[in-house]
């Protein structure tokens, strides 16, 4: 009887180890796009990153955060199981390519110019006369292409696009209104040129991610919104509420 009990204990122990070893780690990919996601002193932080970390800790689920150029992060999320990319604008072109958890934020797109540059489009059609910068893989690039902008400058990340704008190498930069406000409040010499349409942003997850996991992440995000945590995180980064 002791031998049977010992063998059973070994079997159960092996099953527990096997279950732990096979637990899936959710890969959360993002980019340098302050104040939502950015790295500083080797740490990844930001208004969206803090929400992601709170969600995963509430689920007590293994996860890994990584910052990559946006086009690479988006491609990996589309092609690798158990992978999500954020903070991702949800538009028609991307809708069926991912499973979505949202909103990490709701915002409008905006075209900004270097302060006192004189670039002053009153409409989208007038803006087409200028060179507009954005990042490869960003949905704003799709927006510009769908609206037949003839002069689009693609960079690997937002920091490069901003440097081009401030250096006079491009005329306009397209970004989120909240990001513009955060950069302006930090003293960056940019100002609004043209307000565009609103968007929802969230996690874009690989289609192979189990629906049960997507639903758990969504439920935790909704708790952050309902109890005011999301708004408190926004305030910490100088952002206005989604509501």
Entry keywords:
alpha/beta; D-Maltodextrin-Binding Protein, domain 2; 2 domains
The CATH topology of the largest domain turns out to be: D-Maltodextrin-Binding Protein, domain 2
Which CATH architecture of the largest domain would you pick?
Answer: 3-Layer(aba) Sandwich
Provide the β-strand percentage band. 25-35%
CATH superfamily of the largest domain: Periplasmic binding protein-like II
Molecular structure report:
There is one protein chain. With 243 residues, the protein is an alpha/beta fold. It contains ten helices and ten strands. A hairpin with a 2-residue loop joins strand 2 and strand 3. It is globular and about 55 Å long.
In short:
Helices cover 42% and strands 28% of the residues.
What are the SSEs and their pairings?
Layout: H1 2-21, E1 26-30, E2 38-40, E3 43-45, H2 47-59, E4 63-67, H3 70-79, E5 83-90, H4 92-95, E6 99-114, H5 124-127, E7 132-135, H6 139-146, E8 152-155, H7 158-166, E9 172-176, H8 177-185, E10 190-205, H9 211-226, H10 229-236
Helix pairs in contact: 2-9
